[in-house]
Amino acid sequence: MGYSAFRIFREGIAGNKGWKPVWRDAAPKSRYDTVIIGGGGHGLATAYYLAKEFGVTDVAVLEKGWLGSGNVGRNTTIIRSNYLLPGNQPFYEFSMKLWENLEQELNYNAMVSQRSVLNLFHSDSQRDAFARRANAMLMSGADAELLDVKELRRLCPWLNYDNARFPIQGGLIQKRGGTARHDAVAWGYARGADRLGVDVIQNCEVTGIDIENGICTGVQTNRGPILANKVAMCAAGSSGRVAALAGMRLPIESHVLQAFVSEGLKPVLPGVITFGAGHFYVSQSDKGGLVFGGDIDGYNSYAQRGNLPTVEDVCEGGMAVMPMIGRARLLRMWGGVVDMSMDGSPFIDRTHIDGLYLNAGWCYGGFKATPASGYCYAHLLATDRPHEVAKEYRIDRFLRGAPIDEKGQGAQPNLH
Ligand SMILES: Cc1cc2nc3c(=O)[nH]c(=O)nc-3n(C[C@H](O)[C@H](O)[C@H](O)COP(=O)(O)OP(=O)(O)OC[C@H]3O[C@@H](n4cnc5c(N)ncnc54)[C@H](O)[C@@H]3O)c2cc1C
């Protein structure tokens, strides 16, 4: 079923009785060409691009819960391509370009809103670092501008410019950055993949990965065994547990990241704003709520809920940069499990087991990567070669001494 303004009008006058389910409730078959473990944004996008770009339609996406139950439905929805390192920047810019055409391509309203992402800086050295990053962005074809305090005061008069400890000196703005409706991205890709013949199977947990003579032959699930030529792991925060089913130990730790939403306010924030002297990022949803977050809780966990000290820390960051946030009531908060890699960068790679592939390590920045991750993973699965913009995301980069440490924190997953 195609969506259009005319369709909404027609359904409206006909009592909205003609809408069809957005995807089929497929039952697992005994064999597929490709089985994708995890029906988050990345798994669904992979299935969609496999079918659309590479003609591989004999595909199943196996999701242990419901679509959107993982991080794709829990994140703070920020999309951007303001990276510095050559291993990252072209990939995220490729993703940004896919975002820009996503809704037309999927015929689905994912509420992609390029309302800008503004990174504030608070010292001379930070300004220099941001200028360097802006140049890297421009060189990969992305957009970037440095704003001075005068321009910022016009844009956001309510920021705390004269904070004695962290006075705001300016900002790096990417006007093409912004937000997208997180779960609608999952639903849009699910619908797109389903329309191309992919089986999207919910409540189907992978409990084992079958390996014979070094070759992956399929998976065991709570709904029976499934044979497959290729098995693609795509389980984000559960990557370590899924890889363990194949006897693999990943350079990844799972951590909790929390998100927060305030009561609805009149429009006040022009776009996404990040505090440069602490970890705090905020945007405003179309319903008016301030959507914000900060650091991970900082210890290993698979629990989808966080702790009060981090709530306090995030709110302190908010108060330091925009004191008016203290007048808003906190409405909701939740946690998600993020797959923090040793250098803060992801993996899209084959494994040492033939037919078994890995997509993981997205830390707390994988939502913006969803389109490119799906595209590049599909490219790898279909051709057995890495896509040009994802060729640095190999798992052997630590052995080669080529980590992609965007933050320069070293092998410290909880600091990336
Ligand atoms: C609070 C929070 C805020 C964030 N904010 C941002 C942001 O603003 N911008 C940004 O770019 N990124 C952000 N992220 C990160 C981003 O959400 C993730 O990196 C990204 O969603 C991970 O990919 P995914 O969508 O495929 O993951 P998920 O949606 O978690 O998908 C993985 C799926 O695998 C399933 N699964 C696990 N084990 C099995 C199994 N054995 N069998 C079958 N299925 C299984 C899970 O149920 C899950 O649905 C945030 C994350 C959190 C938690």
Question: What does this molecule look like?
Answer:
By secondary structure, the chain is of the alpha/beta class. The protein has helices spanning 5-13, 41-54, 89-100, 102-106, 124-139, 149-155, 182-195, 239-244, 308-321, 370-383; strands spanning 31-37, 59-62, 78-79, 117-121, 145-148, 170-174, 178-179, 199-201, 206-212, 215-221, 224-233, 252-264, 272-275, 280-284, 289-300, 330-341, 347-350, 356-360. The strands form three sheets. Strands 1, 2, 8, 9, 10, 11, 17 and 18 form an eight-stranded mixed β-sheet that branches. α2 packs across α10 (370-383) and α3 crosses α10 (370-383). The longest helix has 16 residues, at 124-139. The radius of gyration is 21 Å and the shape is globular. The two termini are 42 Å apart. The mean pLDDT is 96. Bound molecules: flavin-adenine dinucleotide (FAD).
